[in-house]
């Protein structure tokens, strides 16, 4: 009885400590719609295998969550869910109007992330967003720390190239838009002597 109570206390502590981060990982891999299901299955397994859960528990839990979502979701569905989630973050960061340069760069990074291979996305999420060390991230994906560092280096390099391209394209679109907006537009029926403003707006 005492052992059962001790197990319940330990499981509750693990759940309270890690649930939000496991959920965030699940969202980044399969989207919000299925994240709760992945979290529930992950902690069900954790309860059944509580004696196997190490300290700290988060890398182990993320490894379980990874196996759960890979078993239940095809790669194409995971990619689509990740792209959709990045789209939400992009929309939240870009409510409209003028965008500061640092926000523009963040948007470029988010858009670039959506175009990376799934393996690159996963490593970057674990390191940059989950805050895991390369050693702990390696435990999640099932490789050596040395191999993880190589994967991380390559993923960061590909992300930097993709983000630079996305940022340049975004600046190009804004420049073209600004040039177009500055061209006076004369429309039919404009009264003689009326000053023509920007893109067809009449100025008295």
Automatic annotation (TrEMBL):
Single GO molecular function: sigma factor activity
Domain RNA polymerase sigma-70 region: 14-78
Keywords recorded for this protein, A-Z: Sigma factor, Transcription, Transcription regulation
Domain of life: Bacteria
Span of domain RNA polymerase sigma factor 70 region 4 type: 107-159
SUPFAM superfamilies xref list: Sigma2 domain of RNA polymerase sigma factors (SSF88946), Sigma3 and sigma4 domains of RNA polymerase sigma factors (SSF88659)
Gene Ontology process terms (BP): DNA-templated transcription initiation
Protein family (similarity comment): Belongs to the sigma-70 factor family. ECF subfamily.
Name recorded for this polypeptide: Sigma-70 family RNA polymerase sigma factor
Annotated organism of origin: Actinomadura chibensis
């Amino acid at each position: 009885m005492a052992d059962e109570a001790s197990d319940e206390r330990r499981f509750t502590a693990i759940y309270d400590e890690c649930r939000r981060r496991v959920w965030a990982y699940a969202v980044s891999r399969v989207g919000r719609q299925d994240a709760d299901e992945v979290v529930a299955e992950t902690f069900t397994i954790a309860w059944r295998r509580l004696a196997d859960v190490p300290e700290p528990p988060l890398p182990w839990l993320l490894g379980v969550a990874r196996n759960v979502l890979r078993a239940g979701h095809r790669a194409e569905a995971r990619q689509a869910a990740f792209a959709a989630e990045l789209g939400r973050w992009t929309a939240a960061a870009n409510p409209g109007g003028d965008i500061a340069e640092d926000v523009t760069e963040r948007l470029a990074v988010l858009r670039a992330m959506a175009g990376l291979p799934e393996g690159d996305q996963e490593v970057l999420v674990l390191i940059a967003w989950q805050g895991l060390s390369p050693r702990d991230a390696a435990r999640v994906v099932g490789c050596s720390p040395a191999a993880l560092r190589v994967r991380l280096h390559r993923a960061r390099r590909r992300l930097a190239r993709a983000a630079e391209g996305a940022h340049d394209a975004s600046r190009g679109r804004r420049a073209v838009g600004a040039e177009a907006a500055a061209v006076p537009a004369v429309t039919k029926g404009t009264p003689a002597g009326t000053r023509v403003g920007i893109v067809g707006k009449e100025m008295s």
